[in-house]
Amino acid sequence: MENIYKPPKQKWFGQAFDSIFILVLVYASLMAPLLLDSDDEVINPDNLSVQVSPTWEALNVNAVEQQQWEKLGFDAEKAAELINKRFDYTIEPISLIVTALFIIGYFFFMLKVSKKQYLEVIAEKFGSSSQD
Fold first, then answer.
1. DSSP of 73-90, one letter per residue?
2. What is the pTM of this model?
3. What CA–CA distance (Å, rounded) separates 66 from 117?
């Protein structure tokens, strides 16, 4: 009868560390945008003008959209702040490169570790491998 393969058991400390590490990474990735967000808007003197109370027509909002905004508790003036606010989707090259290098490095690290573990499993199951 064949021996049933039993993988090596991970110790409690390793499992706890892995769980806490992933939890910290998730928490940090969710908190980073909030902590790094700067609400200080740069005021351009060329764009200064007299503030006019916006209307639904000036905001290009049709009657159905207007009803939905009002159901949410927004009047034309409050909705104008959200409608006219443009999101900044600029990509910073340095951050992009650092992120790409990190992901690529992690990929190669995982390949190396996976190969090592795969060879260990093969060695345990079928005996020594000649591909070392």
1. T--HHHHHHHHHPPP---
2. 0.41
3. 60
CB 131 within 8 A of CB 119: yes
Encode the chain (132 residues) as per-residue pLDDT tens digits. 567 767 778 888 888 999 999 999 999 998 888 888 756 555 555 555 556 678 888 888 899 999 999 999 998 888 888 888 877 778 889 999 999 999 999 999 999 999 988 888 888 878 775 555
Domains of the chain: which residue ranges? 53-86, 89-132
Q: Residue 128 in 3-state DSSP?
A: coil
Spell out the residues 6+ positions from residue 124 whose beta carbon is closer than 8 angstroms to its own. Answer: 5
Neighbours of 16 (CB within 10 A): 10
Q: Are 77 and 53 in contact (CB under 8 A)?
A: yes
Rg (CA), the chain: 28
Cα–Cα distance for residue pair 47/32, rounded to 1 Å: 31
